[in-house]
Amino acid sequence: MASLHKNNSLYRAFPALSHSPFRWFWGGQIISLIGTWTQNIGQAWLVLQLTNSPFLLGLVAAMQFVPTMLFSLQAGAWIDHLPKRKVLIATQTVMMILAFALAFLVGSGSLRYWMLLVMAFILGVTNTVDVPTRQSFIIELVGREHLANAIALNSAIFNGARLVGPAIAGVIMGIWGPMWCFLINGLSFIGVLAILIFVPAIPHQEKLTPKKETLRKDILNGLSYIRKTPSILIVMMMMGFLSTIAMNFNVLVPVLAKIDLQAEALGYGLLMSALGLGALIGALTVAIRSAEGPQPRLLLVGAFGLGMFNVVVGLQNTYFFSAFFLAFLGWSMIVFSASANSLIQITVDSQYRGRVMSVYNLVFGGMIPIGSLYAGTLSDLWGARITFIISGTITLLFMGGIVFWLRRYRKDEGHENSSFV
After folding, report:
1. Are residues 238 and 303 in contact, defined by beta-carbon separation less than 8 angstroms?
2. pLDDT tens, 100-124?
3. In the chain, what are the domains?
4. This prediction's pTM
5. Which terminal residue of the chain, N or C, has fewer Cβ atoms less than 10 Å from its own Cβ?
């Protein structure tokens, strides 16, 4: 079997799939993530139906990520000392219960806007633990050698789900209503939980070190490690800024569809699918190039693409071209974020992995409340298209400053052979 794996062209292109535990986990995530995106689309459309307010839509998105701002650092310190499989079983169970609860509330006609805020907050607390745990769990499935490929493959299924889930949600909402979006998501967790419980032994499991420090000392040590590791620090800075300004698609795309383009639920779902198609191609781009090692230049290409295509999408006034350029925006987003994740995980020491990935989760997801309120407020004032243009312009100016600073840093510190720029 080992020789088959080595000779199989699929395993040569995507070596992470040669690890049986990863294949099981990866397969389960495909189904679960489609359910997650089905719920995301259903929830956003439901909020607009209930309130017709881009700001209140942004508030729901913000509420889901407030816990990441508040608890992400503490979660990272805990994760470094807990068995990750058991943590994932707990978090996935809670998310399944929340999905079924939303389906019941919508189906019974008893859902109110404030309930969505509460549910979003609880889901945010769960995700604050779940996301860095899943990211830290990958190395236990494939080892360090194939880690970059595994991260890129995870991005591929996440964005494949971003392609399929919205299209399914658009059809379902048009025929049966949003309740079924939440019900499908709840059912999608069953397979993941079964795989987590029965998956074969983890071949690269990292040994847990005894907890000798206080929680506060653990957090401070993790932050100090990031500060003293420039390659991680600069990626964290870029991720924090771009996730706040340039990646507010869960707010902007439904507003663009419903208000700017006057589309129905199916039209909104297809716009999100266009974004997902580009993101899937971007994830496969990173996966195929992962064999070449870390790709800092690809990171910069994705970041500049985010700025440029935000502007281009904002300049469109027809449905077709909006969808067409959203695909390029999705490609840029995933090329940037998957490259950032890979660069950090390949660089980080194992003993700091949970804490560093919790900080990554903080700057990626924890800034979303600010970004959601920013996007929702500007969309209320000037519409989604103007907000896209403003966001893209700010991003391009920021990235120009980053490249200028990096070149000065290389020259001043003597890092002339750095491949970052």
Report:
1. yes
2. 999 999 888 888 889 999 999 999 8
3. 15-199+213-413 (1.20.1250.20)
4. 0.69
5. N
